[in-house]
Design brief:
The complex is a heterodimer of chains A (about 375) and B (about 300).
Chain A: H1 2-19, E1 21-29, H2 36-55, E2 61-70, H3 75-88, E3 93-96, H4 100-112, E4 116-119, E5 134-136, H5 141-154, E6 159-165, H6 168-183, E7 187-194, H7 202-210, E8 215-218, H8 222-234, E9 242-245, H9 247-251, H10 256-259, E10 263-267, H11 275-285, H12 294-311, H13 316-326, E11 330-332, E12 335-337, E13 350-356, E14 359-362
Parallel strand pairs in A: 1-2, 1-3, 3-4, 4-5, 6-7, 6-8, 8-9, 9-10
Antiparallel strand pairs in A: 10-13, 11-12, 13-14
Helix pairs in contact in A: 2-12, 3-4, 5-6, 12-13
Chain B: H1 2-28, H2 36-52, H3 57-77, H4 84-104, H5 106-109, E1 115-116, H6 127-154, H7 156-166, H8 168-173, H9 178-204, E2 206-207, H10 214-227, H11 232-256, H12 260-281, E3 290-291, E4 294-295
Antiparallel strand pairs in B: 1-2, 3-4
Classes of the chains: A alpha/beta (about 375), B mainly alpha (about 300).
Chain lengths: ~375, ~300
């Protein structure tokens, strides 16, 4: 009798799971440490996606949920989180991390465990080395650096001076820019990697000035670029055009009078289909985007859900196959997403922008 | 769960080596080193550089040993006449210098992008057996380091170290050469820290300057302060305790349905609060230093 009961429960359980199946995926993001703001923004993007998916019928007839783990911005902690999600929670899909230096070791582990990994923020070209089912929903530095170089040439620059932060992002994008710019026949007369958190960048700026460029190209985080922009203005360098890579990040904290007339590019992080998303974000969190990263996290969760539904399974290999199919052309809130042979996003819509009367405007 | 546990144990062993090494400097020699993570970095970059330039495993060990000996020697030599707390500030600065050099000399070290794809220690194994192999290696190295430290501190040399910590002038007056004591202690403990870095690099297969932030040093400090300064078992226990707490906080979060920010906040509270609590109320840590064979509370 007891055995019969067990079978009955087992059969009932199996029948139930055939009808509706809840799926859990994992996310590793920095919610403490130096990149906690961007991490929080990623969390918001994922939360919005999750709500939307579950309102619209969920996945495989059940609910989708995300277990989010904090990476603290450290590789060892992120790896702890990845191992927990893979070996204990047994998630088929993982999203994250933020910094390339953490995404790479975590990615190699996930690839070795044959799970699907969606990269939503790390833009170093070194992530290409991760094999397995690793997909970048965000365009890498070679894409953005090359776009900026082409744009600078189009705007008549021949000899430029470059300044960028001395970290993985800055070194990556400056290299990609220089490579493409030289290919197009331009000259990079000076290139300086600045140390983050200084109180003054006069020395760096004067060094750039010596090379007498016909355009300054820069990329910097909000607070630092506020200093750079003010000092460049005071040194009279703003008589030469300034080109900002990721102009909204570069000018966010700057005084409008120092940045008037700057030109530059930025991610079109709200693509043609992103207006509704932007409105939903504003409504939920009572404010504008915290950073440019929420949209990629949103798209990653939406794509993962679409792939699970397409595969009709929560098996990582089946999801990866479905994802490759969906990733031929996917209409995300960050614009059209298409993967190349190495599963990296090939096109990313960029905007050509300028600062006019203190505001970012299209050019 | 089993695989996760193995991973946590591996990390425990690696941090235990770092804690043992720092404990030898601070707990026994009174050398307030705030730059411990640089020694770890020497080991990690030894492995990474050997991989990048295809020099092989053995030369990786040689590079790690050479780098750590050099940096330890520099640590000991810098501001040789400074008092211990001022010397501590100098070590913090020197560790930052090492990190900045690594970030800027991109032609050699890969710069801020780091070096990725380093081969695992046991490439012929895979899956769980590889993990068990890693754990065996880590456990063995930790055991050797622990025995070596115990032997060292029981010897006359260890007595000299303790005397240097308590009464440097007295140590000098009875014929100890303070400078060579300092140098020897730094270089020996540097090897242990570098061993941890070397294994860590092969284990996570990536090395970058972001792994050498000074906040990492303070994590190791928390381990030895909580475990007990001047007690080898205390250092190892502190490392295991903190690693286990960190690894299992996320499970508490899942069980109670708390938001992930809780984990982030709890980690910071535990390190900071633990340090302050122990310094205020239990200076000797969980395992007090043994003096004359008896526990001295």
């Amino acid at each position: 009798m007891k055995r019969l009961l067990t079978y009955a429960i087992l059969v009932a359980g199996l029948a139930g799971s055939a009808h509706a199946k809840d799926v859990t995926i994992g996310a590793i993001i920095p919610l403490s440490g130096a990149s906690a703001t961007q991490g929080e923004d990623q969390r918001r993007g994922m939360e919005l996606a999750l709500e939307k998916i579950n309102v619209n019928g969920g996945v495989l007839g059940g609910k989708l949920s995300i277990i989010t783990e904090d990476s603290a911005g450290r590789a060892p902690t992120a790896l702890d989180a990845a191992k927990k999600l893979v070996t204990v929670d047994n998630v088929p899909v993982l999203i994250g991390e933020f910094s390339s230096g953490i995404t790479i070791p975590v990615g190699e582990y996930i690839a070795q465990q044959k799970k699907v990994h969606l990269n939503v923020a790390s833009t170093s070209i070194d992530v290409r080395k991760i094999k397995g089912d690793f997909y970048s929903v965000i365009g890498l530095d070679d894409v953005s650096g090359a776009f900026s170089a082409q744009d600078a040439i189009d705007r008549g620059a021949k000899k430029v001076a470059v300044i960028a932060p001395n970290n993985a992002y800055g070194q990556g994008i400056a290299d990609a820019f220089a490579k493409k710019f030289k290919e197009l026949g331009g000259e990079v007369a000076a290139s300086i990697m600045y140390t983050e958190g200084q109180t003054s960048y006069r020395r760096e700026l004067q060094q750039l000035e010596k090379s007498a460029p016909d355009m300054y190209v820069y990329t910097a985080y909000g607070k630092e670029s506020a200093t750079i922009n003010r000092e460049a203005f005071e040194l009279g360098l703003t008589d030469t055009p300034w080109y900002a890579m990721y102009i909204t990040m570069c000018t966010a904290d700057s005084d409008p009078k120092y940045i008037e007339g700057q030109i530059g590019m930025d991610l079109n992080y709200v693509g043609p289909s992103g207006a509704d998303y932007q409105a939903a974000y504003k409504k939920q969190y009572n404010g504008d985007f915290l950073s440019t990263f929420n949209g990629f996290a949103y798209d990653a969760v939406m794509m993962a859900a679409a792939a699970i539904n397409k595969a009709q399974s929560d098996d990582p290999a089946a999801i990866a196959a479905a994802l490759a199919e969906i990733g031929k052309k996917y209409d995300g809130v960050t614009g059209e997403i298409a993967f190349d042979d190495e599963h990296q996003r090939v096109t990313q819509p960029y905007l050509k922008l300028k600062i006019a009367s203190g505001k970012v405007a299209s050019n | 769960m089993f695989d996760f546990l193995i991973h946590v144990l591996i990390m425990c062993c690696l941090y235990s080596m770092l804690a043992l090494s720092l404990n030898l400097q601070v707990g026994f020699g009174g050398l307030m080193n705030f730059g411990q993570i640089a020694l770890f970095g020497c080991g990690a970059y030894g492995a990474a550089l050997a991989y990048k330039y295809d020099l092989g495993f053995a030369s990786g060990i040689l590079i790690a040993v050479g780098l750590s000996a050099f940096v330890s020697w520099a640590f000991a030599g810098i501001g040789r006449n400074l008092q211990s707390d001022y010397w501590g500030i100098a070590t913090l600065a020197l560790a930052e210098v090492v990190r900045i050099i690594v970030t800027n000399e991109g032609w050699l070290t890969g710069g801020a992008q780091g070096i990725s794809g380093i081969k695992p220690l046991l490439p012929e194994l895979s899956g769980r057996s590889q993990q068990l192999g890693n754990l065996a290696i880590c456990g063995a190295v930790l055991l050797v380091a622990l025995l070596a430290c115990m032997r060292l501190t029981r010897s006359r040399y260890g007595l000299g170290l303790k005397l240097m910590r308590e009464e440097p002038q007295l140590a000098q007056s009875v014929g100890y050469d303070i400078m060579s004591l300092k140098r020897g202690c730094m270089i020996f403990s540097g090897f242990i820290a570098a061993a941890a870095g070397f294994i860590f690099a092969h284990y996570i297969t990536f090395v970058g300057p972001d792994q050498m932030f000074s906040s990492e040093t303070f994590l190791i400090w928390a381990m030895i302060v909580i475990g007990g300064l001047g007690n080898h078992f205390g250092a190892v226990f502190g490392a295991f305790l903190l690693q286990f707490i960190f690894a299992f906080i996320p499970f508490v979060k899942d069980m109670l349905g708390l938001p992930t920010e809780f984990v982030a906040a709890m980690r910071l509270v535990l390190i900071g609060g633990g340090l302050i609590g122990f310094i205020l109320w239990r200076r000797t840590g969980l395992f007090p230093e043994k003096v004359g064979g008896r526990a001295d509370g």
